[in-house]
């Protein structure tokens, strides 16, 4: 439903992505993994329609326009947190993007925003100015905006940075549930163990797609070496795969 074909991204003479071809399907929770500067954010930005120039193609489900179905959570540090809005306003931005000009949010929009704030645990903070939030609270507010959008394609760039370990698990469960409800969830992460536990598909990226498959297929010494070179991340390659998860409820589409 969303993908890139031979995506090549250059910044000046620097080659950030080299002919990457990937497809992301509904119902799949995919982790994009690779070292710093591997082109992970560039991939997400291309998928989100935010890269002005690239080679190759970004392909969307022909039934949807990218704008209506996509929800992108950028890295927190790329946003202006001094902007004078509250947590409620941030989550409502997930709705107002869809409403268009001169349409006020209705009761249904407010209900969806309230639900998103509760799910991400920031309902109590809804009246707080975003400048007065901690890093983890900001991340939750961004996730609330993403949930409020109710998009089919969720693109998240390191969404758990600054979030405490217990909350990370809660938010990962939330993202997993989004995939189980039929959405395509694509997350950039540096946590290889977490990706193994929560994602059904891993993509190892280092300028090129090095490996793409289930955790068991992807986490091999050769693939890790080709992706990270000498600086191996912490990962137990002998560990077994994730525990079996319950199947999604039937008919639970977005
Ligand atoms: N706007 C830009 N102008 C110039 N170079 C850029 C720009 N954006 C990214 N790059 C370069 O392209 C390469 C890939 O960057 P990208 O942000 O996609 O990597 P990443 O895998 O997300 O890295 P990280 O894990 O550090 O976030 C890097 O070498 C980066 O310096």
TrEMBL record:
Any GO molecular function: ATP hydrolysis activity
Name of a matching Pfam family: ABC_tran
Domain ABC transporter: from-to ranges: 2-231
Biased composition, class Pro residues, residue ranges: 241-254
PROSITE patterns noted in UniProt: ABC_TRANSPORTER_1, ABC_TRANSPORTER_2
Protein name: Manganese/iron transport system ATP-binding protein
Similarity comment: family membership: Belongs to the ABC transporter superfamily.
Keyword line: ATP-binding, Nucleotide-binding, Transport
Record bears the keyword Nucleus: no
Region annotated Disordered, chain positions: 232-254
Record carries keyword NAD: no
Signal peptide: none
């Amino acid at each position: 439903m969303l993908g890139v074909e031979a995506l090549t991204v250059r910044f000046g003479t620097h080659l950030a992505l080299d002919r990457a071809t990937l497809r992301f399907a509904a119902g799949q929770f995919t982790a994009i993994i690779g070292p710093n500067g591997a082109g992970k954010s560039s991939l997400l930005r291309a998928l989100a329609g935010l890269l002005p120039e690239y080679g190759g193609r970004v392909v969307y489900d022909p039934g949807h326009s990218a704008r209506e179905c996509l929800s992108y959570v950028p890295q927190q540090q790329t946003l202006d947190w001094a902007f004078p809005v509250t947590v409620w306003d941030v989550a409502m931005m997930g709705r107002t993007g869809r409403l268009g000009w001169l349409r006020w949010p209705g009761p249904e929009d407010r209900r969806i925003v309230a639900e998103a704030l509760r799910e991400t645990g920031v309902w109590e903070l809804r009246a707080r100015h975003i400048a007065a939030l901690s890093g983890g609270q900001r991340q939750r507010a961004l996730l609330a905006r993403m949930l409020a959008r109710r998009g089919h394609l969720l693109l998240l760039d390191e969404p758990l940075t600054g979030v405490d370990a217990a909350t990370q698990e809660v938010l990962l469960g939330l993202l997993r549930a989004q995939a189980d409800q039929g959405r395509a969830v694509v997350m950039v992460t540096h946590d290889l163990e977490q990706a193994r536990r929560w994602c059904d598909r891993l993509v190892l990226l280092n300028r090129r797609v090095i490996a793409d498959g289930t955790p068991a297929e992807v986490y091999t010494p050769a693939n890790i070496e080709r992706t990270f070179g000498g600086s191996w991340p912490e990962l137990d390659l002998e560990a077994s795969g994730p525990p079996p998860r319950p199947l999604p409820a039937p008919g639970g589409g977005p």
